[in-house]
Amino acid sequence: MGRREVSGPRVGVGSSGEPGPSDRILGLDEAGRGSLIGPLVVGGFVARRSDLPELIRLGVRDSKLLSPQRRSELYGALTALGGCHSIALSPRTIDRHVRRHGLNVLEAQAFADLLCEAAPSEAFVDACDVDADRFGRTIVRMARTTVPVYARHEADRFVPVVSAASIIAKVRRDRAVARIRRAVGTDFGSGYPGDERTRAFVERLLRRPVRSPTWLRESWSTTKRMRQEALLRPLESFPP
What we know:
Elements lengths: L2 E5 L16 E8 L8 E9 L3 H7 L9 H14 L1 E7 L1 H8 L4 H16 L3 E5 L5 H12 L5 E4 L2 H4 L1 H25 L11 H11 L14 H12 L8
Parallel strand pairs: 2-5, 5-6
Antiparallel strand pairs: 1-4, 2-3, 3-4
Helix pairs in contact: 2-7, 4-5
């Protein structure tokens, strides 16, 4: 489905002397959903129930409220505390689903895949669907599991294990975007349409008569509008 990444200690695999599956709590969140450039990364963090208070002690918060340096520091602490999982969904995969109005389905499937991979006793999810309960039911159905899944809006702000997942997703997406910056040799900013540097970079890119790179999301309305403007711009030089 996408590029997977797993790191951290083995948590609760049920072998002798280790806690069983009933001790595993999973948080799920994403980063990069609205970006023009780079992957959407779904992140998961799973830890023993007894270790969850440590998240509060560490100061784990919604990744958007943390500086890049602080996110990096917390990421290191999280990899030592629990299991860190992620799936990176490429722009081409995202484009295919957006054209079928299926972005929420794609994201739910990625959450379901991480749920199966982490094998927790319960999971908490930051819902991207307007109907949070429906999103949770969709994940359960896709995962074919009886594990309770609690989905709510802004869970990354209010549920520490989901905040941890948001940090995993954000750090791994930032690394992917940094690789793209190095490849193109340009600092195009965050990759989001609200970033002026990103918009200027994409506008320049779309004026060139070359095939769009695989890291650009073609299905986004901002990309479509920029492409149309790039095609029409030469006509402006003709007199009426």
